[in-house]
Amino acid sequence: MGKYIVGAAALTAVALLISGCDTQSAPQPAPTTVAAVPPKAPDKAPDPSAAYAKWGLKPFAAPPAPPAVKPVKRADGGPVPVISEIPTKDKVVFLTFDDGAEKDPEFVAMMRDLKVPFTMFLTDSAISRDYGYFTPLAALGAGVANHTLTHPDLRTLDAAAQKREICGQQERLERAYGTTPRLFRPPYGNWNEDTRAAAAQCGVDAIVLWRESMQITDMQYQRADHKLRPGDIILAHFRGPEDLKGTTMTQMTATMLRRVQEQGFTVARLEDYV
User: Fold this and answer.
1) How many CB atoms lie within 10 A of CB 40?
2) CATH code that applies to domain 82-272
3) Nearest-CA neighbor of 172 among 119, 134, 142, 117?
4) pLDDT digits (tens, 9 = 90+) for 15-49
């Protein structure tokens, strides 16, 4: 009996000793260290050089901020102004493309890459089967402007017929693209006072002519010195290899842009000045 008690006491002491050792000397887990997450660097603006190089070009200088007051503005109740250039000292020119006969998908890709501003003067008879081609160009910011329904020489038409040509195309372009054009270009640059009156009745703010026209590989100038001037409006066309002797519209456009750069100009948005 005495031996049993002693043995039990000894076992109890040993158990207490072991328990004490466990609670006092068990290793504690190391504190968790959270690594600091460096702040995300701001996204860099895309470098336009690669996009321009794809088309054999160099990026244009950014145009100046649009003028606070547009230098060309129709006075309330006054005649529609007729312009070939914009009065400005900024070394900018304005690109315009007429008709819409050629619908080159590469031109859409080019303008998406280059982001060069331009204005489209569209003729219903040239685009009636594919108004949708010009939708992505308008979505890129290209101006949509009026170039009549059937591309006639307006000086051969009476006042009523001119109004039908201009107002009719205003309505079709508004239905197709959601906004009423503010600018109008008479086919061949031919107009008279009936044209002006009809344009006013159709809601046009300016009749837009041009100073230079782009040919296949070079520009045709109206001035004898063959030089661009600040504010010049340049005419080109939606034309393809059949009209350009094998040259594509994108090749013609790239050549035109090089000619602009060679004379130290950049391109601005016509609608910001008119």
Assistant:
1) 6
2) 3.20.20.370
3) 134
4) 443 344 444 444 555 554 545 555 665 556 567 89
